[in-house]
Amino acid sequence: MTILKSLLEQKISEHRPRTARLLGEWSEVVVDAVTIGQIVGGARDIHALVTDISYLDPQEGIRFRGKNIPETFAALPKAAGCEYPSVEAFWFFLLTGEVPSLAQAREVQDDLSRRAAVPRYVFEVLRAQPEDTHPMTLLSMAVLCMQRESAFAARHREVRKTQYWELMYEDCCDLLARLPEIAAFIYRLKYRQGDIIGARSDLDFGANFAHMMGIPRPYDDVARMYFILHSDHESGNVSAHATHLVASALSDAYYSFSAGLNGLAGPLHGLANQEVLSWILHFQQTLGDTLPDEDRVREALWETLSAGQVIPGYGHAVLRRTDPRYTAQMEFCQRHMPDDPLFRLVNMIYRVAPRVLSEHGKTKNPWPNVDSHSGVVQWHYGLREHDFYTVLFGVGRAIGVLANIIWDRALAYPIERPKSVTTDMLEAWGRAG
Ligand code: NMX
Ligand code: MLT
């Protein structure tokens, strides 16, 4: 057994009594009340999910296993010559809450490499799709068609409930290991005339992805940074919640993660990174190469708002400050590409948009989220086909949501089934005050 799996087993057995106590002793303790506004308004802010893998504070942003983004990057080991930790080290950290040594991260890398071979039929399914199929559709299809490989689906009836997590762990590791090759294949099939670059088993997740994309260094570090930043955002976001919900029916990791990806593909969620780039490029075309002044940016923002559209990459359901994932990418750009014209334009928009959105007066959060910066970095390194950007988000998101569903089965969380009510009932409660 790998060190990761045996440590995870230990962490799970230490954690189980906590869940048992919550259910046994404190099950009836009230932690929240629910208003009509929340029932009609997308369950916003209702405390109704549990995860220990990440927590999102509205002011501070995300913490992974208790560490904020700079602390996470500082704590995790980095291989020689790398600016960012490996995805493998981060996977170990998310699953166990412990910072691995470089050797432990390397063991995860070897384990994932052994699992990484993508079945041939996946490539055949992808090649068979019409040329204009969206890359997110391809990614979701690739994941779903591997469902027949699921160890959980094949064997969970033969084992005790306390062992479910082991089968889920096997599936999640297999699935995660295959995603870089699947994503790079989709990219090169669609945008590089099918000129596929084979995987290398000696490289870590980020470096192998960069290699298969055909983009030289420091894109390996860009990939590591990008995947870690996009991994998890607690459990209520659409992709994490959809994955968790589907897995709660004892659907396996392939069914569940494919559902999560389908949610991520919406423009109010992960697709916003593609929309941001389209919006900025359209804006740049009308302005030419020169950096516009603040008045012109303000005008363009108002044009979008007056047309009844949202400013993509701004606003958030939980955050009430600039997303620290935005800041982490901005700091990367300041170090690596300070004079990039698109980066300068994004900075200019950042100076103006929060004020415009505040004057507009609708959004509760006028500050940028992760999506308003991620495309700029990709564009700079030559990845300019922006309808591919959400696929990158999806690969990163897998790390968080797959870690979560392993823990879901370890802690035997039941099928999720909130109660609905009718409009008549809400009106009656409303009238009664
Ligand atoms: N531009 C213009 N209007 C906005 C924006 C924005 N960026 N953000 C929110 N609003 C509007 C929103 O449409 C709503 O209007 P209405 O009452 O007419 O329906 C109003 O402000 C109140 O919305 P909020 O309560 O502030 O936001 P909510 O929690 O409902 O939605 C988002 C959160 C993220 C869906 C929303 O801010 C948005 O649509 N942003 C733009 C799309 C985007 O960047 N999505 C990516 C989010 C991060 N991710 O990766 O998933
Ligand atoms: C995410 O990363 O999932 C987004 O920021 C959306 C969210 O948290 O609701």
Structure description:
Pathway: Carbohydrate metabolism; tricarboxylic acid cycle; isocitrate from oxaloacetate: step 1/2. It is an enzyme of class 2 (transferase). This is citrate synthase (unknown stereospecificity). Keywords: Transferase. This protein is an all-alpha fold. It has a domain at 272-380: Orthogonal Bundle (Cytochrome p450-Terp, domain 2). It has helices at residues 3-24, 36-40, 69-75, 87-96, 102-115, 120-127, 135-145, 151-155, 164-191, 205-213, 219-229, 238-248, 253-264, 272-287, 294-306, 324-336, 341-360, 371-380, 389-410, 423-432, and strands spanning 54-57, 61-64. The chain has a two-stranded antiparallel sheet. α7 (135-145) runs antiparallel to α9 (164-191) and α13 crosses α19. The longest helix has 28 residues, at 164-191. The chain starts with a helix and ends with a helix. 43% of the residues are buried. The mean pLDDT is 97. The structure holds nitromethyldethia coenzyme A (NMX) and D-malate. Nitromethyldethia coenzyme A (NMX) binds next to loops.
What's the short story on this structure?
The chain is mostly helical and 433 residues long. It has helices at 3-24, 36-40, 69-75, 87-96, 102-115, 120-127, 135-145, 151-155, 164-191, 205-213, 219-229, 238-248, 253-264, 272-287, 294-306, 324-336, 341-360, 371-380, 389-410, 423-432; strands at 54-57, 61-64. The chain has a domain at 272-380: Cytochrome P450-Terp, domain 2 (Cytochrome p450-Terp, domain 2, Orthogonal Bundle).
